[in-house]
Structure to design on (751 residues):
């Protein structure tokens, strides 16, 4: 009961929300009439940070803000005339963002405010108003990320873009069919087998009738030979045997199809995750992606292996029995299937709740996986800070939540399944009465009774099965939607159609490049420079200036919002990512080693490399000396993430990896900052080998390591502030000089 109350309360909340929005919309409409606003968005805070329900509409003339208290009440409408306002923008505060402008007296004023859930709308509105005031075309609404289903208006869950309510099931089935296409012949054979098995199942009651009415209870039974009886019994046995043999073949076929589909979907999903841009991947947690690749595909596999064949089998059987029974006794058939529409109506009524509960179950399950993955990934930090109990409690709380949702789910089914069974049983009682009267009136023989009883038993099998099927369908639907949500996700850093493989020479040019991780906040502005082939460019600046972001753009982990990045004069978007990445080498501050041997980790960059090449690369990087001292030399297995090696050793392996890949463009991101001075000297020597004849971009915390750079680019708040050699910039006494002096002071202090 509690569960049902909860569900209904939530449903009430949703419709109340919808009503509030339409009331606010109506209020705005009374002012703007039939004009279509350029942009609408919701806000939910007053200037004092109290919660309200607000809707804002922007037209060419004014900004209309309508809001009412959360608990309902009077709607307040505020109208801001765009002509007398200027300097539209937004300000991010703690946990909220406000849309602001200057009034006719030049004073700063706030139009509306929203918390972080609705900040996207406020920021897009600010872009919109800025575009309008500067006479640009207003295109912000097109850029706006769709966070609600356009059809039913429900908000998507975080990082989700699928609404299971609106035609989702149909879409999912079509997508599944498109994946199953190659297995269609096998599939058709198994469907034929389903028909054969169902046909034989239907034959059994008919043979039973012949056995009883025409052999055992026949008026002339004594005249019949044992031979004819034997033939009937034999045909019964052969039919049973055929049913079993064909069922085994059919199950084998379905198992083959489903395992092939499982492998295919898992590979599609894994490939897609690998191809997703870093931006897209970071919208999901590792736990979320792992849940989709492992559990969701497993749910699909179970459905395909067991439920789908069963569903076809029971469907064919049900249809056959209905036809057979209808030919013998239409009224009885009608009585038998009478409860079906009621059951179907019942499911249609609770369909929405079922989807909601399964979605919640999926999200809490995925959250539990995310926490577990985080804890295992950061187990050293957990141990160092003695947070084992806290983390265990955190995980325990999530698992408990998952259990509660699962329990709610099961309670709902424990209520629904007996209810549907009861409905079905009512139908059985009606039939019992009907058959009884027929026997009493001598309108039915014993054989016919046995036959009809067999059919009735047969018909209730599929009916009961179908009454439990929605549960499985909803569970599978939720998982499959999650799988295809990733597979069908648009790739924001995709190869252009004209993208080609090319041999890179090494000239890199930035032309007025602007970039922001989200469309409202620019991280890099108007970056223009050219790095010639073989040059070493040092990138320096305060923390957060945009150094790593610039490097991410060179590797095309993200695409620039405007401007162009050219490599040897070709736009980076016209070079295939495979070709670009295979000719770009990276050494990062934190080297990631895969669990495997030292040899495998070096050869990772070029699996086709010969042993001599790998050893040569290790020698050049200075790694060879320590590798040969390891217990199994190159065959030593490094622990997970290489944690059996020191930071300097891991770094030298990373350099060997980069040397082996022989990149034309090399990126060193704080490659030596985590090392002590002696190790740094070793790594510096290795790096000197590495950068020869390659265009290198290096970020270094210790500016002394960039002395040999051909040029230094100094970034300040996302813009290029200074460019020159170390000596030139020191003479200039600008930002770089300040950074050098600060480091010298620190070094003095330390000594
Ligand atoms: P630097 O390398 O100079 O220290 P970054 O390029 O890492 O600076 O960061 C520049 C700015 O971009 C910072 O304000 C940072 O918070 C922001 N930023 C960096 N990475 C992301 C990201 N993945 N998503 C959103 N903002 C980011």
């Amino acid at each position: 009961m509690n569960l049902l109350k909860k569900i209904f309360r939530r449903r009430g909340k949703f419709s109340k929300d919808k009503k509030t929005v339409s009331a606010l919309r109506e209020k705005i409409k009374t002012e703007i009439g039939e004009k279509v606003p350029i942009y609408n968005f919701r806000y939910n805070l007053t200037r004092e940070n109290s919660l309200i329900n607000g809707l804002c509409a922007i037209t060419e003339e004014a900004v209309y803000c309508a809001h009412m208290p959360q608990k309902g009440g009077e709607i307040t409408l505020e109208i801001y005339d765009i002509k007398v306002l200027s300097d539209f923008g937004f300000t991010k505060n703690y946990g909220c963002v406000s849309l602001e402008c200057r009034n006719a007296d030049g004073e700063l004023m706030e139009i509306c405010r929203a918390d972080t859930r609705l900040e996207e709308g406020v920021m897009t509105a600010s872009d919109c108003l800025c575009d309008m005031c500067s006479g640009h075309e207003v295109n912000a609404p097109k850029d706006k990320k769709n966070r609600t289903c356009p059809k039913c208006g429900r908000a998507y869950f975080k990082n989700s873009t699928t609404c299971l309510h609106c035609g989702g099931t149909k879409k999912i089935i079509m997508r599944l069919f498109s994946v199953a296409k190659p297995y269609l012949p096998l599939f058709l054979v198994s469907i034929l087998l389903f028909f054969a098995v169902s046909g034989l199942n239907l034959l059994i009651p008919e043979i039973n009738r012949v056995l009883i009415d025409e052999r055992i209870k026949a008026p002339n039974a004594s005249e019949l030979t044992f031979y004819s009886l034997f033939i009937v019994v034999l045909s019964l046995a052969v039919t049973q045997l055929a049913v079993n043999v064909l069922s085994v073949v059919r199950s084998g076929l379905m198992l083959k199809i489903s395992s092939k589909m499982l492998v295919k979907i898992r590979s599609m999903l894994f490939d897609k995750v690998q191809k997703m841009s870093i931006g897209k991947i970071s919208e999901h947690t590792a736990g979320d992606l792992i849940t989709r690749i492992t559990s969701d595909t497993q749910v699909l596999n179970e459905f395909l292996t067991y439920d789908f064949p069963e569903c076809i089998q029971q469907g064919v059987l049900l249809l056959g029995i209905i036809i057979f029974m209808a030919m013998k006794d239409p009224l009885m058939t009608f009585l038998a299937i009478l409860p079906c529409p009621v059951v179907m109506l019942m499911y249609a009524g609770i369909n929405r709740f079922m989807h909601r509960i399964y979605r919640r179950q999926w999200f809490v399950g995925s959250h539990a996986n995310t926490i577990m993955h985080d804890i295992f990934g950061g187990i050293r930090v957990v141990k160092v800070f003695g947070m084992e109990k806290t983390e265990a409690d955190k995980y325990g709380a999530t698992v408990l939540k998952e259990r509660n949702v699962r329990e709610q789910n099961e309670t709902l089914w424990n209520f629904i399944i007996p209810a549907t069974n009861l409905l079905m049983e009512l139908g059985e009682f009606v039939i019992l009465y009907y058959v009884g009267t027929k026997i009493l009136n001598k309108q039915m023989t014993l054989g016919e009774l046995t036959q009809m009883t067999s059919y009735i038993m047969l018909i209730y099998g599929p009916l009961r099965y179908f009454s439990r099927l929605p549960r499985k369908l909803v569970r599978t639907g939720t998982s499959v939607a999650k799988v295809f949500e990733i597979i069908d996700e648009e790739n924001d850093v995709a190869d252009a159609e004209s993208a080609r493989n090319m041999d890179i020479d090494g000239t890199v040019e930035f032309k007025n490049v602007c970039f922001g991780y989200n469309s409202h906040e620019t991280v890099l502005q108007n970056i223009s420079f050219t790095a010639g082939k073989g040059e070493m460019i040092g990138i320096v600046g305060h923390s957060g200036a945009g150094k790593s972001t610039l490097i991410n753009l060179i590797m095309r982990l993200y695409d620039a919002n405007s401007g162009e990045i050219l490599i040897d004069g070709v736009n980076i978007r016209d070079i295939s990512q495979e070709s670009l990445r295979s000719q770009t080498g990276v050494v990062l501050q934190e080297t990631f080693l895969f669990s495997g041997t030292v040899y495998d980790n070096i050869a990772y960059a070029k699996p086709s490399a010969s042993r001599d090449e790998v050893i040569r690369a290790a020698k050049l990087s200075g790694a060879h000396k320590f590798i040969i001292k390891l217990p199994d030399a190159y065959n030593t297995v490094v622990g997970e993430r290489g944690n059996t090696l020191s930071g300097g050793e891991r770094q030298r392996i990373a350099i060997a990896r980069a040397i082996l890949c022989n990149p034309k463009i090399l990126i060193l991101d704080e490659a030596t900052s985590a090392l002590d001075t002696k190790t740094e000297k070793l790594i510096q020597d290795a790096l000197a080998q590495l950068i020869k004849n390659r265009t290198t971009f290096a970020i270094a915390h210790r500016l002394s390591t960039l002395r040999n750079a051909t040029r230094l680019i100094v970034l300040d708040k996302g813009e290029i502030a200074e460019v020159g050699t170390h000596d030139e910039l020191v003479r200039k006494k600008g930002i770089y000089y300040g950074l050098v002096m600060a480091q010298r002071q620190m070094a003095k202090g330390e000594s």
Summary: The two ends are 72 Å apart (CA to CA). The CA atoms of residues 91 and 98 lie 5 Å apart. Residues 282, 517, 523, 541, 543-549 surround adenosine-5'-diphosphate (CB under 6 Å). Residues 140-146 have pLDDT under 50 and may be disordered.
